[in-house]
Specification:
Number of helices: 5
Helix content: 55-70%
Structural class: mainly alpha
Largest sheet: none
Oligomer: single chain
Radius of gyration: 22 Å
Number of strands: 0
Distance between the termini: 41 Å
Strand content: under 5%
């Protein structure tokens, strides 16, 4: 949840300040805070991607690949798009 608060820092401080400047009714702040269940959606997405990568590498463990291929596959799994130079692949 702390990651979600960091992403929504501006909104968080705005609702916190508004709560402090008014009659100290914390209901709006509580409603905002309880709405952080959206953080669980983001966490579920990140966890799903991590599990998918782990399964990929587990299945690949039975295959013989070299380090260069491993680096390329890692970049592709991390959604790399664009030109890939030999320097980026570690060949200097």
């Amino acid at each position: 949840m702390s990651g979600q608060i960091r992403q929504e820092r501006k909104d968080y401080y705005a609702i916190l300040e508004a709560t402090q400047k008014r009659d100290m009714d914390i209901t709006p702040w509580l409603l905002w805070f309880l709405g952080l269940d959206r953080a669980f959606d983001g966490a579920e997405l990140v966890l799903g991607k991590a599990i998918q990568k782990a399964r990929f590498w587990d299945n690949l463990a039975r295959q013989s690949i070299n380090e260069r291929q491993r680096v390329l596959l890692k970049r592709l799994l991390d959604r790399f798009w664009g030109k890939l130079t030999s320097i980026q692949m570690g060949e200097a």
